[in-house]
Amino acid sequence: MSASEWHVVSAVALGVCWGSFGLVWVAGALYNARHAPATRRRSGPSYGWIVVAFAAWLVVRAVPEGDWGSLTLGATWVRAPGLIVLFASTAFTLWARVVLGTMWSSSAVAKEGHQLRTDGPYAVTRHPIYTGMVGMLLGSALLVGLGPWAVVLALGVVWVEVKLHTEERLLAEEFGGAYERYRREVPQLVPGLHRRSTH
């Protein structure tokens, strides 16, 4: 596939995947605003992603476009796997979001009647939405041949790690032994990676 064809494929794939992600998140947030159970406890701010997005924008804008060449790989062997990872990760993310339903929140919270989810995508990783989001960033970065997306991916991983620590503390406090057993049995973020968290 030529560079121009990859450019078209990348634009369509990024638009479809991230557009679907955005639509589901906005629709879910609007629905939850009216139907979600009341929040009993909140841990951590919900605006962290805005800080990360702004930081990524600053870095991308600060570096001249021509300087990204050393980080850009236009080969099919990089872009083709990226396309697969992007679509698979998008599907996984949306599945996890739908399964979580009204228990979802942009920040770590405990709601009335909150139950620990361990089925479906939550049997694959403890935080399948974050797993999917990191996968979407990785797939996007590979699909466009890295470049500025390498910075977006790195900052996204940092943000996810910060969020994970906050949510894990809250879940451990809310569900006690049940969450400890779940944490021993299911990997945190990477499917198949069974490493017990120490925080």
Overview of the molecule:
This protein is mainly alpha-helical and 199 residues long. The protein has a single domain, classed as Four Helix Bundle (Hemerythrin (Met), subunit A) (Up-down Bundle), CATH 1.20.120.1630. It has 5 helices and 2 strands. It has helices at 3-35, 48-62, 76-100, 128-143, 148-185; strands at 39-43, 108-111. Strands 1-2 form a two-stranded antiparallel sheet.
Q: Tell me how many strands there are.
A: 2
CATH fold title: Four Helix Bundle (Hemerythrin (Met), subunit A)
Q: What is the topology, as strand order, of the major beta sheet?
A: 1-2
Question: Strand percentage, roughly?
Answer: under 5%
Distance between the termini: 46 Å
Number of self-contained structural domains:
1
Pattern of helices and strands: HEHHEHH
CATH top level class name: Mainly Alpha
Could you name the ranges where pLDDT drops below 50 across 5 or more consecutive residues? none
* Helix count, DSSP H or I runs of 4 or more residues: 5
Question: Helix content range of the residues, please?
Answer: 55-70%
What is the molecular shape? elongated
Gyration radius, to the nearest Å? Answer: 18 Å
Largest sheet: 2 strands, antiparallel
Q: Can you name the CATH architecture?
A: Up-down Bundle
Determine the mean pLDDT.
83
Pairing-aware structural class of the strands and helices? mainly alpha
Describe the structure concisely for a colleague.
With 199 residues, this protein is mainly alpha-helical. It is built from five helices and two strands; from the N terminus they run H-E-H-H-E-H-H. The longest helix has 38 residues, at 148-185.
